[in-house]
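Structure tokens please, single chain.
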Amino acid sequence: MKKVIKLKEEKRSAKFGAFNGVFIPSFLSIIGVILFLRLGFIVGTAGILPTIAIILLAASVSFATGLSLSSITTNIRIGPGGAYSIISKTLGLEIGGSVGIPLYIAQIFSVTLYLFGFMEMWRYIFPDHNSLMVLGVAFLGLFLLTFINTKIVLKTQLIVFLGMVGVIGMILVSGNWIHNVVTTSLIGGFPEFSFWALFALFFPAVTGIMAGVGLSGELQDPKKQIPRGLLLAIGITTLIYIVVAMWLGFSASSAELINNNLIMIKLALFGPFVIAGILASTFSSALTTFVSAPRLLKSMAEKSLFPGSKFIDQGSSEIPHRAILITSVPILIALGLGNLNTVAPIITIFFLIVYALINIVVFIEQSIGLVSFRPTLSLPKFVPLYGAVASLLFMFFINVIVGMIALIFVFLIYLYLVKRRLKSTEGDIRSGLFVAFSEWAARKILTFPESTKHTWKPNILLPVINTATLLGNFPLIKSITFPNGNMTVLGLDIKKIDSSPEKVKATKKERKSQLEELPMLVKKFGNEGIFTSTSNVTATNYSDAICISLEAIESQTFSPNILFLPFKPKMISLDSLQKIFQTAKKHNTGIILSDRDQEIGLGSEEDVHVWISSKALMKDIFDEKKYDLAMLIAYRLHRNWAGNITLWMCVSKEKKLEAENYLKKILYEARFPSSTNIVISTDSFAKTLKKAPKGDIHIIPVSSHSEIANIRKISEAEEKSFFFVADSGKEDILA
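Here you go.
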């Protein structure tokens, strides 16, 4: 037991704290190549005041994002992968991956950026050395250190950090610059680069905050250590950049700053010490990022985000050797193709997208007000909102075309990941987000005049006692509801099973087991493109269960508008049937009583026949009708079956022309397909129905008590499949 405890303590002690695990990696990544090799060029081109504006603008986005990162890490258990882990646990794997992949690419380019800075400094000392050779040897050193032992790498950063503090101190005490006359313009002439081009060149400096977050898997307690280390690093490094920019502006002319990237060595109190500091800083920054990138790749591979994930995910979790090998390839390619000035804007665009999404995540969490969002570091809403808006605006200010290409790239990754149907073992806030939006929409609906006729779509309530009812009727219901309809499966726990119209021979225990299977079946049907939900009701008999459910759902904002009864009329008493129809009418729900012939079934699933009563001729077509739902169902079946619709009406010879004109007008106003047929019969309804085709569905509208009573007679007299349909009053075929 003591041995187990000791091992756990050793494992815990191997992790890093806020200072060495977050602050130092972030500090060294921010205070690096841009400060020593490009800040002078920016000051010389833009002038002192615009440079300070660039620093503050970039730092403001970095600070807002740092606050957002800090806030959300105090609310969730962040794992390996940094920003990818945060976004995946909030907005899901698809969005997390669509950010993680660009972030991984940005980290690859960041490594090349730091190595280019290292190479420039090295060639200042040894101008005869070949650039590619220097880059290759430096990369080999990175690779071996990362591949062998990451923890040694992180521990040696303390030495580099102390050295960097000494270098910055050496620079700032050089000369009596505070009392000097300004030698660089306060506002420069921007001879070759615009303000936003310089911003793009500078911005990679503030992306160093991802270095500390990227090592989240190596921290003892990320929830506490990331906020402390991150915000301290951002604040101190921003102050250093502003002071160094002023030092440069007071110490050298614009021409010197523009033409000499290594001006700091000349101006510093002891140049060789600065050279050593720049070499150590650029190499250390490259090393930190090269440690983070493979871990990000491996954390994405664990969720199978891309082909080859299983291969990458295999091996040690301490040192992801395969991820390191794969990451090395694009870094080597980038080193051979790019240079520092071309790499920097690419990094800027990708990191701005990542920053925007991190801030959007926090803003969404704050806005929907879920009880699960309880960060110990609370922020005003304007902080993440500013971070998100500023990131997107800056991206387009830098380069509209490149910004659009980057966003399209991220969107394509998202579509690809959606297509992969990723499975996550952890929840996220997407369901809560849509629930919050639905609640907002529901409240809005209540403020508008009630009008469902123009927005009608089928929302079917299907009562079932066993799973066979659901399985047998789903194809037909899908034909009615697809593509935008809904279905609610109502599991009925009936105490007196003999009163049910469904033939159920199973025991009570078996029926209960089948009801428990409904959620699993419903989930499968949801994959067919029909939003399907389920709930259970217990009642003494079938009709009571239906009526109780209709009363309960009426008050819902998105309540079912069609009750689908899947049984033959003879299997339920007339009193029970009329009770169901009356309750449905009272609670504004239409009814489809599906009476399928056992032998014919749905035939070839093509033709649909609608029988309209001659009583319709007594009213204008724009008055209240009793066949709106019947026509709407016919149209939906026609769209999904691609067959023909036939309208039938039985009238006396004197009214044949009137009936024909009436139906033609209905078809015209209802915008039905031109292929719709009209049949006017002068025989009785019973004789005409007997002669009608047996295949497919015959839809018969019913409304009055007498028509409901005739349902059983029609069903028993004809070997056909029927829909007996009753309007709710909310449908309108002419809408």
